[in-house]
Amino acid sequence: MLAIINAELVMRDHLIPDGVVLIENGIIQAFGNAKTVAVPEGCEILDAQGAYVGPGMIDIHTHGADGVFFTDDPLRASRHFMKHGTTTVLPALYYSMNTEQYVAAIEKIKDAMQQPGGENIDGFYMEGPYLNPKFGCDKEHNPWKGPVAKENYQPIIDHAGELARVWCLAPERENILQFVLDAKKVNPNARFTVAHSEASPQQIESLMPYGLCIGTHHTNATGDRFRYSETRGVCVDEAVNNNPDIYAELICDSRGIHVDPYMLRLVRRIKGDDRIILISDVYVADGPVPEEFAGVTDINFDWAGEIAGSNLTLEIACRNMMRHTGASIVDVFKYASYNPAKVLGLTDRGEIAVGKRADLVVVDYKMNVQNVIFKGEVQ
Length: 379
Prior knowledge:
- This protein is of the alpha/beta class.
- It has helices at 74-83, 99-112, 150-160, 176-186, 201-205, 236-242, 261-271, 314-325, 329-344, and strands at residues 2-10, 15-24, 27-33, 44-47, 52-55, 57-62, 64-65, 68-69, 86-94, 124-127, 164-169, 191-194, 212-215, 226-228, 231-232, 247-251, 276-279, 299-301, 307-310, 360-363, 369-374, 377-378.
- The longest helix is centred in the last third of the chain and has 16 residues, at 329-344.
């Protein structure tokens, strides 16, 4: 048995000071204040020395880490995330790949999931294939601009199987519903997102009964709609904000470039703490930094000067969210752990509770990672 002692436990809506967590066989057996939870003799002890202990973070949307895509070196990427407290990660597979490349990437990552160092990979975030070709980095190399065609997408669905936890799509694409139905035949629990889109709220809401419940990197790669000259219409961002059943993904970089700090505060006010998910959306791109973004180090740019994802990990995104919005450490752990677990239906993790998988992270008050526990083992 492992006992974590002298911890400030981060719960869903409060803190437990002088906390203790007892772990056996990879499962949380007990937790609470040291006055109420006794540590059995003979336990392995991890002394948190007053640091915060929260649930391991869950990054549902990221393309790579440590300078590599998951498709190039999945173990290097997954190990980097584990070191930074991300105990569950969904590699994002982008629309720049054709059918054969998607299939090859899926099989390569599935193999890595079975190897030491790849255990925190828990499925796929399919950022494509059918997004709006007007939006996103590297859009010049999008092979999916043509009609939604079963002969092109079915091999991807079949190879990903039930590991395709999330499918991103642009609801305005013609015949997109057939794609959704075919994806659900293979994985009835798949979630769908509105992504890289200029869909109307009505087009988005028409897919919610089929599992559309996430706004991909909210306020990024979405179109504007104007009803008349100088009058604002409504589009993707408004639909995500207005629908309480849609979670908003947020990329929270240090300068507030992906999402302006004022917008972060507005989204938090509208969506509430139960419908925000922090993501890293790391992308590997080495285009030059535009002059207007001189000095930026946690964002990448493609060779057209477009923003191309981030260099974040979730503990840094949490720190930025705290600074930009005044959110507490309890709040940001919800955004980075409990909410992503809930939207994916991962009922075995995402919070400190008896019977949950012992995926935990020890951090200081600035979210610097000190220890990571994965399935009850100190990493």
